[in-house]
């Protein structure tokens, strides 16, 4: 299913004719030798300093161009199933505000959101402060992504807690943080909380609903990002039949576990639909089995993906480009190709170029023109 193409003395991956897309791209390796990549992040304004997370607990700083690599931090994590070091987000004002935030799991299993203070001159961690802990009933569906929105608040995506089929009903239980998207203010504190609650969070003041909750009804929002209009785009990993892409707004109920994608799950027929938000795109378990969300490419170097949301599938190695609609409605994705990679995460630098992390080989690729 692959052909190996040599370009500029580097080995690149290119889709073969049997899966030839209308808008072909190339995967150009830019860094290798990592183990079980879970996240790729660039500090605000940077396209050279790339932070790569490993599931096993180490965060690396890779300087593109020079090839220099240094260890940022190592966390004592548990790694069973989907547990581990899962996500990182820089404060929007970094390095003036030298903080980054990480999502990782410890024995329990318990998920932690921690604040790191970093010396940007030496790339060393000076301190760590725990902001939030969440008990996980199982070792899967812990989500992973954390990201700052254009509003300056930190968004945290939690899965339904795991097992299969959401046995505890966390997706529709607004009393729990699980199965929800949270929104917090890391620049202030509210009472005993080490963070603030934005006053316009949609459930503030509602009895038995955590004020951090911004949206709910999610199964496992492993990766999410924000488009140039400031809208949240979530790739929610499905159960047995469907993977979905959602445009998520404040107060949304994305439907899990009543529905998987647009289809009834519990009950399997005749499920209620009122008040549930449809995905803008879904695919069945033919093209893939586990969606990995990406980013809108804003760079000009790859016309095929410019202005489009790029995402992939961990199981099949397929990558698509999706034009995001102006309003929430069905839209179609274009297949860019299929590669022999386990797509665990995407990244985007300050120039708007998109990167792909291969969980299996530990290689980081940049999406390049054919």
Task: Characterize the structure shown.
This protein has 370 residues and is mostly beta strands. It has strands spanning 2-7, 10-15, 26-31, 37-41, 49-54, 58-63, 69-74, 85-90, 99-106, 110-119, 124-135, 146-148, 154-157, 180-184, 213-216, 223-226, 232-236, 242-248, 259-260, 263-264, 281-284, 291-296, 309-313, 318-322, 334-338, 343-348, 354-358, 364-368. It has a 4-stranded antiparallel sheet, with no helix packed on it. It has a 4-stranded antiparallel sheet with strand order 4-5-6-7, with no helix packed on it. It has a 4-stranded antiparallel sheet with strand order 8-9-10-11, with no helix packed on it. A hairpin with a 2-residue loop joins strand 1 and strand 2 (10-15). The two termini are 17 Å apart.
> What is the count of helical runs?
0
- The rounded distance between the terminal residues' Cα atoms is 17 Å
Low-pLDDT parts are: 1-22
Relative strand content: 35-45%
Q: Which sheet architecture does the biggest sheet show?
A: 4 strands, antiparallel
Q: In what order do the strands lie side by side in the largest sheet?
A: 3-28-27-26
Q: Given the C-alpha coordinates, what overall shape results? A: globular
The arrangement of helices and strands along the chain is EEEEEEEEEEEEEEEEEEEEEEEEEEEE
The overall pLDDT average reads 93
């Amino acid at each position: 299913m692959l052909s190996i193409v040599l370009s500029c003395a580097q080995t690149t991956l290119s889709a073969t004719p049997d899966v030839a897309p209308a808008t072909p791209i190339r995967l150009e390796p830019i860094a290798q030798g990592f183990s079980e990549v879970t996240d790729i992040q660039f500090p605000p304004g940077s396209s050279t300093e790339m932070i790569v997370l490993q599931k096993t607990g180490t965060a690396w700083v890779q300087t593109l161009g020079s090839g220099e690599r240094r260890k940022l931090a190592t966390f004592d994590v548990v790694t069973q199933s989907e547990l581990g070091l899962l996500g990182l987000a820089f404060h929007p004002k970094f390095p003036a505000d030298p903080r980054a935030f990480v999502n990782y799991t410890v024995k329990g299993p318990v998920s932690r959101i921690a604040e790191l203070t970093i010396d940007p001159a030496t790339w060393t961690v000076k301190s760590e402060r725990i902001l939030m802990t969440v008990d996980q009933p199982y070792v899967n569906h812990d989500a992973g992504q954390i990201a700052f929105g254009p509003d300056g608040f930190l968004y945290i995506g939690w899965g339904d807690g795991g097992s299969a089929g959401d046995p505890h009903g966390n997706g529709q239980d607004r009393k729990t943080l699980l199965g929800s998207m949270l929104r917090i203010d890391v620049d202030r504190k509210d009472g005993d909380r080490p963070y603030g609650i934005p006053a316009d969070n949609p459930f503030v003041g509602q009895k038995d609903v955590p004020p951090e909750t911004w949206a709910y009804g999610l199964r496992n929002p492993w990766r999410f990002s924000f488009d140039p209009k400031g809208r949240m785009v979530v790739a929610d990993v499905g159960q047995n039949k469907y993977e979905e892409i959602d445009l998520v707004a404040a107060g949304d109920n994305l439907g899990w576990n009543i529905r998987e994608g647009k289809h009834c799950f519990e009950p399997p027929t005749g499920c209620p639909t009122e008040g549930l938000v449809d995905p803008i795109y879904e695919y069945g378990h033919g093209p893939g089995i586990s969606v990995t969300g990406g980013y809108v490419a804003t760079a000009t170097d790859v016309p095929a993906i410019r202005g489009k949301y790029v995402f992939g599938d961990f199981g099949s190695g397929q990558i698509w480009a999706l034009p995001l609609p102006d309003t929430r409605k069905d839209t179609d994705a274009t297949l860019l190709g299929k590669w022999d990679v386990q797509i665990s995460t995407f990244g985007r630098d300050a120039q708007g170029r998109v990167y792909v992390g291969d969980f299996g080989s530990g290689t980081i690729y940049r999406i390049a023109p054919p």
